[in-house]
Amino acid sequence: MTSAPIHALHTRRSMKFLRAPAPRPEELDQMLQAAMSAPDHGALRPWRFKLIRGEAIGRLADMALDAVKRSGDKRMTPEKEKSVREWLAGVPLMIALAQKIDHDNVKIPEQEQLLATGASVMNILNAAHMLGYGAFWSTGLGTYLEPVQEALGFDSLDYRFLGFLAIGTPACAVPPANRPDFREFVSDWTGQPA
C-alpha cells in the first residue's frame, strides 16, 4: 500500500499544455514555501524566482523570441515561433528560475549551490502536482542567451539562469508516465574487489 504523499511523487509528471486558472495566491505561496525546504548546505538559499503573469507573459514571449532570432538560431522558424506563442498564450503563470552565485563563499562549492536550487525547483513541481496543478520546466525561450537573462534581471556574472516553470491547470488529460524500475539504476557497493 502506498501513502498519499508517496503516491503523489510516483504520479507527478511534466505537463506542458496548461490553461487558466493559475494557482490561487495562497496555493502559490504554498508552492514557493515548499522550495524553502530544499536541502541547502550552508543555508545559502541560492534560489531566486521571478513571477511572470498576465500581460507580462506576452512581453516575455516578445523579448525571448526576439533574442533567439537575433542569436541566429536556425531552429526558430516562423512555424516554431507561432507554436511557442500559442503555447505561452495558454500558460497563466511562468516562474523564471536562477541560482544566485555567492562569489565570497569559499566553503560551499558552486555545484552544491546549483543542486540546492534544482532541489528547490523540484519541491515547487511536487507541490504544484499535490495541489492539483500541472507544471513544466522549460529551458527553451532563450534560457542560455545572456540578453534574456539580463532582461529578467539575472546578470550572468551573479546568476546562473536555469529556465522557466510554467504552472497552470492541465489543458488535457495526460496518461500516466511509464516509469522504469528503480532497480535498473541501483547497485550495492560492498567495498570488496570486483
UniProtKB/TrEMBL annotation:
Q: Which Gene3D superfamilies match?
A: NADH Oxidase (3.40.109.10)
Q: What does the UniProt cofactor note say?
A: Binds 1 FMN per subunit.
Which metal ions or organic cofactors does this protein require, according to UniProt?
Answer: FMN
Give the EC number(s) listed in the UniProt record.
Answer: 1.-.-.-
Q: Which residues bind FMN?
A: 12-14, 41, 137-139
Per the UniProt entry, what species is this protein from, by scientific name?
A: Bordetella genomosp. 11
According to the UniProt entry, where is the signal peptide?
Answer: none
Reading the lineage from the top rank, the first entry is Bacteria
Q: Which family does it belong to?
A: Belongs to the nitroreductase family.
Q: Does the keyword NADP apply?
A: yes
Key words of the record:
Flavoprotein, FMN, NAD, NADP, Oxidoreductase
| Pfam assignment, any one | Nitroreductase
Q: Does the keyword Cell inner membrane apply?
A: no
GO molecular function ontology, one term from the record: oxidoreductase activity
**This chain belongs to which protein, by name?**
Putative NAD(P)H nitroreductase
